[in-house]
Protein backbone atom coordinates (compact mmCIF):
# COMPACT_ATOMS: atom_id res chain seq x y z
CA UNK A 1 0.00 0.00 0.00
CA UNK A 2 1.45 3.37 -0.97
CA UNK A 3 2.27 5.96 1.65
CA UNK A 4 -0.23 8.46 0.22
CA UNK A 5 -3.06 5.91 0.40
CA UNK A 6 -2.12 5.20 4.03
CA UNK A 7 -2.17 8.92 4.77
CA UNK A 8 -5.68 9.31 3.34
CA UNK A 9 -6.90 6.27 5.29
CA UNK A 10 -5.35 7.68 8.46
CA UNK A 11 -7.10 11.04 7.96
CA UNK A 12 -10.43 9.35 7.22
CA UNK A 13 -10.13 7.11 10.30
CA UNK A 14 -9.02 10.02 12.49
CA UNK A 15 -12.22 11.95 11.74
CA UNK A 16 -14.52 9.08 12.79
CA UNK A 17 -16.29 9.11 16.14
CA UNK A 18 -14.96 6.17 18.15
CA UNK A 19 -15.28 4.33 21.44
CA UNK A 20 -11.54 4.40 22.10
CA UNK A 21 -8.51 6.49 21.10
CA UNK A 22 -7.44 6.56 17.47
CA UNK A 23 -3.81 5.96 18.57
CA UNK A 24 -2.83 3.29 21.13
CA UNK A 25 0.56 2.27 22.53
CA UNK A 26 1.19 -1.44 23.12
CA UNK A 27 4.16 -2.78 25.12
CA UNK A 28 4.49 -6.03 23.19
CA UNK A 29 7.32 -7.53 25.24
CA UNK A 30 9.07 -7.07 28.55
CA UNK A 31 12.30 -8.57 27.20
CA UNK A 32 15.24 -6.58 25.88
CA UNK A 33 18.58 -7.54 24.37
CA UNK A 34 20.36 -4.67 26.16
CA UNK A 35 20.85 -3.73 29.82
CA UNK A 36 20.74 0.08 29.80
CA UNK A 37 21.20 1.78 33.17
CA UNK A 38 18.91 4.67 32.18
CA UNK A 39 16.03 2.50 30.91
CA UNK A 40 12.65 3.30 32.46
CA UNK A 41 11.38 -0.15 31.46
CA UNK A 42 14.16 -1.94 33.31
CA UNK A 43 13.43 0.11 36.43
CA UNK A 44 9.64 -0.23 36.41
CA UNK A 45 8.72 -3.53 34.80
CA UNK A 46 8.61 -6.67 36.86
CA UNK A 47 6.44 -8.67 34.46
CA UNK A 48 8.05 -11.65 32.79
CA UNK A 49 4.80 -13.07 31.36
CA UNK A 50 4.16 -12.25 27.74
CA UNK A 51 1.01 -12.51 25.69
CA UNK A 52 0.91 -15.13 22.95
CA UNK A 53 0.66 -14.21 19.27
CA UNK A 54 -2.99 -15.27 19.34
CA UNK A 55 -3.70 -13.00 22.33
CA UNK A 56 -2.01 -10.04 20.59
CA UNK A 57 -4.07 -10.64 17.45
CA UNK A 58 -7.28 -10.64 19.50
CA UNK A 59 -6.28 -7.40 21.23
CA UNK A 60 -5.24 -5.69 17.98
CA UNK A 61 -8.51 -6.67 16.27
CA UNK A 62 -10.56 -5.54 19.27
CA UNK A 63 -8.97 -2.09 19.19
CA UNK A 64 -9.16 -1.87 15.38
CA UNK A 65 -12.88 -2.72 15.49
CA UNK A 66 -13.46 -0.03 18.11
CA UNK A 67 -11.81 2.61 15.95
CA UNK A 68 -8.08 2.56 16.62
CA UNK A 69 -6.21 3.18 13.38
CA UNK A 70 -2.68 3.86 14.59
CA UNK A 71 -0.39 2.18 17.10
CA UNK A 72 3.01 2.52 18.72
CA UNK A 73 4.79 -0.77 19.47
CA UNK A 74 7.18 -0.55 22.38
CA UNK A 75 8.61 -2.79 25.08
CA UNK A 76 11.26 -3.92 26.21
CA UNK A 77 12.61 -4.30 22.69
CA UNK A 78 9.72 -4.83 20.24
CA UNK A 79 12.04 -6.20 17.52
CA UNK A 80 12.28 -9.36 19.63
CA UNK A 81 8.65 -10.00 18.59
CA UNK A 82 8.82 -9.53 14.80
CA UNK A 83 5.82 -11.80 14.34
CA UNK A 84 3.70 -9.45 16.50
CA UNK A 85 5.02 -6.43 14.56
CA UNK A 86 4.03 -8.11 11.27
CA UNK A 87 0.58 -8.80 12.67
CA UNK A 88 0.08 -5.16 13.71
CA UNK A 89 1.41 -4.10 10.30
CA UNK A 90 -1.44 -6.02 8.62
CA UNK A 91 -4.15 -4.79 11.00
CA UNK A 92 -3.45 -1.08 11.57
CA UNK A 93 -3.18 1.75 9.04
CA UNK A 94 -0.24 3.30 10.88
CA UNK A 95 2.40 1.53 13.00
CA UNK A 96 5.35 3.13 14.76
CA UNK A 97 8.04 0.92 16.27
CA UNK A 98 10.21 2.27 19.10
CA UNK A 99 13.45 0.28 19.12
CA UNK A 100 17.02 0.38 20.40
CA UNK A 101 18.11 -0.26 16.80
CA UNK A 102 20.30 -3.29 17.44
CA UNK A 103 17.94 -5.78 15.76
CA UNK A 104 17.18 -5.19 12.09
CA UNK A 105 13.53 -4.63 11.24
CA UNK A 106 12.97 -6.52 7.96
CA UNK A 107 12.42 -4.39 4.86
CA UNK A 108 8.97 -5.88 4.26
CA UNK A 109 7.80 -3.89 7.31
CA UNK A 110 7.63 -0.40 5.81
CA UNK A 111 6.66 1.57 8.89
CA UNK A 112 7.95 4.45 10.98
CA UNK A 113 10.77 3.31 13.28
CA UNK A 114 12.09 5.42 16.15
CA UNK A 115 15.58 4.49 17.35
CA UNK A 116 16.91 5.37 20.80
CA UNK A 117 20.28 7.09 20.47
CA UNK A 118 20.96 6.98 24.21
CA UNK A 119 22.35 3.48 23.90
CA UNK A 120 25.40 4.87 22.12
CA UNK A 121 26.06 7.36 24.92
CA UNK A 122 25.74 5.20 28.01
CA UNK A 123 26.86 1.62 28.66
CA UNK A 124 24.05 -0.71 27.62
CA UNK A 125 25.49 -4.00 26.50
CA UNK A 126 25.43 -6.92 28.87
CA UNK A 127 28.78 -8.40 29.74
CA UNK A 128 29.09 -12.08 29.06
CA UNK A 129 30.69 -14.16 31.79
Describe this structure in words.
It is built from four helices and four strands. It is an alpha/beta fold. The chain has one domain: TIM Barrel, CATH 3.20.20. The radius of gyration is 16 Å and the shape is globular. The model has no long low-confidence stretch (mean pLDDT 82).
Task: Please give a quick description of this structure.
The chain is of the alpha/beta class and 129 residues long. It has four helices and four strands; from the N terminus they run αβααβαββ.
List keywords for this structure.
4 strands; alpha/beta; 4 helices; 129 residues; 4-stranded parallel β-sheet; 16% strand; TIM Barrel
Topology:
Layout: H1 3-15, E1 23-27, H2 40-44, H3 53-66, E2 70-74, H4 82-91, E3 94-99, E4 112-115
Biggest β-sheet, characterized?
4 strands, parallel
Low-confidence stretches: none
CATH fold annotation: TIM Barrel
Give the beta-strand count. 4
Mean pLDDT: 82
How would the global form be characterised?
A: globular
Radius of gyration: 16 Å
Helix content: 25-40%
Q: What top-tier CATH class fits best?
A: Alpha Beta
- Beta strand %: 15-25%
- Architecture, CATH level 2? Alpha-Beta Barrel
Number of domains: 1
Q: What are the secondary-structure elements, in order, as H or E?
A: HEHHEHEE
Biggest sheet: strand arrangement:
1-2-3-4
Please state the structural category: alpha/beta
What's the multimeric state?
A: single chain
Distance between the termini: 46 Å
CATH level-four homologous superfamily name: Aldolase class I
Count of DSSP helices?
A: 4
Amino acid sequence: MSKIVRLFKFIKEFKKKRECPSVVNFDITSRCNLDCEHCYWKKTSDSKKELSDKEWKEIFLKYKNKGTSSTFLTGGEPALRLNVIRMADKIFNSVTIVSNGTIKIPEDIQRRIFISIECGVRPCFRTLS
